[in-house]
# Entry
Amino acid sequence: MSDDTTCPECGAPAVAGMGCVEMFGGVLAWEAHDPELLALHFYTVAAYNLQHPAQFTDETTTFLRAVFVEAWEKQWSSPEVRRVVDGRRRARKPGPVLRKPADRHPVLKTWRKTLADVYVPDQPQGAAERVRAWAAAVHEGLR
# Structure
């Protein structure tokens, strides 16, 4: 988080003193107790990574973006996403996924919704619906 408590990549405000990494971990922890939220795991992880791309190579971000857009538009289930990603990953030339730490330069992009709209402290109820709204906003922001 930056000095003004907003994320330097997605612009999300801190929530209860937590930055995006901590909020992301909180949402992932909720998945263990919420099958509906767990079924959206790909969309949670993809939306987070697409809003925080500085750590990834351009090729990785391009790949994730393409899969996310297609999965969202076709409303793929988690098993469908895994099948497609595994197949496409095998077809790709192997290469690094992450940039070297020295090559990571966050660039602020403003989004209509961020993880701060999903992570409501101590309120995992309704998180699946909040993830759907977030993923829809990320999809819209990528178009």
Q: What stands out?
A: The chain has a mean pLDDT of 94. Helices lie at 20-30, 35-38, 41-51, 58-74, 78-91, 127-142. The two ends are 27 Å apart (CA to CA). The CA atoms of residues 6 and 52 lie 13 Å apart.
